[in-house]
Amino acid sequence: MFYPLVRRLEQHGPLSEEEKQVLQRITSRTVLYQPREDIVREGSTPSYSSLILSGFGIRYNHSPDGRRQITAFHVPGDFADLHSFLLNPIDDGVAALTACTVAQVPHSDLKEITKNYPYLTRLLWLITLIDGAVHRVWMTTLGRMDARERLAHFFCELRDRLQPVGLSNDDSYELPITQQELGDAFGTSTVHINRVLQDLRSDGLITSRGKTLIINDLRRLQEQAQYAPGYLHLYQRIERD
Amino acid sequence: MFYPLVRRLEQHGPLSEEEKQVLQRITSRTVLYQPREDIVREGSTPSYSSLILSGFGIRYNHSPDGRRQITAFHVPGDFADLHSFLLNPIDDGVAALTACTVAQVPHSDLKEITKNYPYLTRLLWLITLIDGAVHRVWMTTLGRMDARERLAHFFCELRDRLQPVGLSNDDSYELPITQQELGDAFGTSTVHINRVLQDLRSDGLITSRGKTLIINDLRRLQEQAQYAPGYLHLYQRIERD
DNA sequence: CGCTGTCTTGAAAGGACTCAACGCCGGTGG
DNA sequence: CCACCGGCGTTGAGTCCTTTCAAGACAGCG
């Protein structure tokens, strides 16, 4: 049996047997979602947080007049709405891009953890802080880079996030994201995403066949994207005492 | 004596006498910063987090080639880099816009709180989560709104954030932010900020005299900005048990 | 009084958008 | 087994928002 939350938190600090058991217990309730299905509705007040075990998801915001902004792409191992533990009603929604299996972690269990497991609490807190760090970098790409740089940056980011969960090999990975969704994430129209992708392809930086993305020239892609992976804090360590 | 952190956290749940004393103790070390001075350097690893007691600050990111994105404006009562408690080195910097008095809260004290005061821990965690919620809305304005809407949105947001700390009266407040800084925050050039401001002024939505901003028609400003203040979670309540 | 940072203005260029149409493909139903 | 359908990707043309570059006006400060 595979315990994604254990694996994820262990990236940031060692876990005791007891702690591992706690994490296994609170992630034992799992649910299956269909592609496009809502996992958490915008504005709702869930009593649990959703941990993605398999599949791809998105987090999104709608402006009152209906324009959509995708604020995060989620891969297996991501806690899509850990923030709904303390923040409710939540103002963003979570949806499945592909079929997803999701563990529903009751907020009551999270509260118990804050009472009895300060170290686990800090680890969970850290996960939400990394989320914020990624948000800030996305803000920087949205505000200060052009569409081409933003896309290149994202492809670099996704590669580094998929690696730890074994979903990226040889710099290629499954990318089940439509051009419309890319547009909604990176602040451009679908049409423009299409043209930028063609650009990246014709420059030999990437290849995309169907839903597979191949990075042909990682160095150059990272360079043009001004990509520096530190903000992902993949190996941020926390001390127990 | 005035304890900004107590006041801030009390917005989200009642505090016991003991808890108040803890908060007072950990915010007792204060420092004064000059305008433009760095409060936290980008990429550094501070051993304390900075709580702004008076003055305005910004948080910012630089892309490797030097373009700057301002990711947050901070007002009195804001914990500018509470996330540096667990996230280090931090990838964003904090700087003073005006003269600032700042309380430096040692990370060791924060760690003690996570061990002994789970309720305070959740309150502090909440603050960082609200930060994230604001980030997401900024992403939405950056990605999906034009410069005029973004500025209007920000003026509405700042009004609602200054109200609780008594810095906004009659829908007017001090705005010690240059057009260059507004540009760096909202993803446009300084020149364009200037033109958009003139637009908002000539439409009778705002008046700005020197560093004072007056909102002349709040309804219409909020409407055009599609402003919905829920994301600030100003009165988000958390339960003790 | 002069300096420097900030604000303002104009003109030309460019990145991105909208609208519209078309091709491709997989899925569905007859 | 084939025809239809809808979602997705692609393309072109015209338009608009925003940028860049440059220069001048203004204001606060030493």
Layout: helices, strands, pairs:
2 copies of one chain form a homodimer.
Chain A: H1 4-10, H2 17-26, E1 30-33, E2 38-40, E3 48-54, E4 57-62, E5 68-74, E6 93-96, E7 100-106, H3 107-116, H4 118-144, H5 147-162, E8 168-169, E9 172-174, H6 179-186, H7 190-202, E10 206-209, E11 212-215, H8 218-225
Antiparallel strand pairs in A: 1-7, 2-6, 3-7, 4-5, 4-6, 8-9, 9-11, 10-11
The structure holds a DNA duplex (30 and 30 nucleotides).
Task: For the structure shown, list the relevant keywords.
241 residues; Jelly Rolls; Arc Repressor Mutant, subunit A; DNA-binding; homodimer; alpha+beta; 11 strands; 4-stranded antiparallel sheet; 8 helices; 2 domains; globular
* Strand adjacency order, main sheet of chain A: 2-6-4-5
The count of β-strands of chain A is 11
Give me the strand/helix succession of chain A.
HHEEEEEEEHHHEEHHEEH
> Could you name the ranges of chain A where pLDDT drops below 50 across 5 or more consecutive residues?
none
Sheet with the most strands of chain A?
A: 4 strands, antiparallel
User: Helical element count of chain A?
Assistant: 8
CATH topology of the largest domain in chain A: Jelly Rolls
* Overall pLDDT level of chain A: 95
In which range does the helix fraction of chain A lie? Answer: 40-55%
The overall number of domains of chain A is 2
What is the CATH superfamily label of the largest domain in chain A? Jelly Rolls
Rounded radius of gyration of chain A (Å): 18 Å
Shape of chain A: globular
As a percent range, the share of strand residues of chain A is 15-25%
The largest contact between protein chains, plus residue counts on each side, is: A-B, 51 and 51 residues
Described by its quaternary structure, the protein is homodimer
Structural class of chain A: alpha+beta
